Each structure stands twice: as structure tokens, then as C-alpha cells.
């Protein structure tokens, strides 16, 4: 994958939301691996965001996901850990808003390495320097209350300011994905929507969610 597809559908991992009743990290990772296997060649981007995993386990997970996605439309990036992304031969790394400079991180990767960044404001959109940005939180979600969401107007302003493709995150469902697409987003990112149907409010499972999102973002 070179650059970011439009519309881009990004699955962000969260093993604890996926398996809240798991007793061990090994159980969580087993369930996560099976879940992600369904996403290969359906979603455009997988962001491995498992911030509390120690390095060896994160590398094993990232390497496994990269292997499963090889030869498909799906690119894999690792949250924060450029060293793990490099060792796993991932497509790139996704930086937090307060992470290191994009140029510094890009310089340590191979040619064509994707460097993304999370952003939360129009100013950050205009100055990120990343290959893509994820803007949020757009709508209220399980983790962000109403007062902490930014809404479509801020998304639209950020999309206009950004030189890079901008993905919307936060409370995404198919209808809201269509709103974001029409407001100028290049796609959407989500966790809860992709969880197995019934696991969380509005969850559809990966295949149903991707079909619904692509339909929502195919209209002008």
C-alpha cells in the first residue's frame, strides 16, 4: 500500500474491549488475532493500538498481523512504537498528538514508510506533516462524553486545513461515516463498530461494518 486509500476504512485494535472477560493477556491476544484475521483484505488500514503490551508481545502481535495482511489491500501500522513497527516490517507507525516530530520518525524508516498522527485541532491538522491524520473525537462515544466531542463543523474545518488525508474517529457508525465523508474526511477509523455484533452498542462485526461504511462513503 502506498499512501492512503480514499475512502479509507481503519480498524483500531483494543483487545480489552474485544474480550472484556478474558482472564489472561494470552487469552486476549488469541481473541485479537482471530478477530483481526477477519479484517485482512476488507479494511484498508489496521492500527495496532495496544499501549500497555511489553515490547516482545507487541512485536509478536504486530509481526503476526503483518503476516496475515501480506498481499492484501490492508496496511498495518503500529501505534507509538516505531522500533516495533520496523522490526515487524509494518507499513508504518501511528504517532500520538504529543509524539515526536513526523520528520524525525520518517527518517528512520524505509522508503514509502507511512507515518500517521492523531490530531485534535485545526492548527494540528495544518501543521502535522504526516502522511495521514486521524481527527477526533468527532461524535460522542463509549469513551468520550458529549461535551468532549468536536462535531462535524470542526471536522470540516480540520479537513480543509489538512494537507494530508484526514480520517474521522469517535462514535462512528455508517450514517455518521457518510456525514464525515461529505464534510471532507478521506475516511473513518473505529473500534466499537467492528466488534462482534452485540458485543457493544452499535457493533456490527467486521464484514457487515465494512460493507455499510463503503456504501455510506460511496455517495457524493
Can you walk through the features of this model?
With 220 residues, the protein is an alpha/beta fold. The chain has one domain: Alpha-Beta Barrel (TIM Barrel). It has nine helices and eight strands. The chain has helices at 15-18, 25-37, 55-69, 82-88, 102-106, 122-127, 151-161, 174-182, 206-216; strands spanning 8-12, 45-48, 75-79, 92-95, 114-119, 132-135, 166-169, 187-190. Strands 1-2-3-4-5-6-7-8 form an eight-stranded parallel beta barrel, surrounded by five helices. Helix 5 (102-106) links the parallel strand 4 and strand 5. The longest helix has 15 residues, at 55-69. It is globular, with a radius of gyration of 16 Å. The mean pLDDT is 93.
Number of helices: 9
Widest beta sheet: strand line-up: 1-2-3-4-5-6-7-8
Q: What sequence of helices (H) and strands (E) makes up the elements?
A: EHHEHEHEHEHEHEHEH
Query: What name goes with the CATH superfamily?
Result: Aldolase class I
Mean pLDDT: 93
Tell me the helix content: 25-40%
Quick one: how many beta strands? 8
Oligomer designation = single chain
Largest sheet: 8 strands, parallel, barrel
Short structural summary:
The chain is 37% helix and 16% strand. The protein has 220 residues and is α/β, with parallel strands linked by helices.
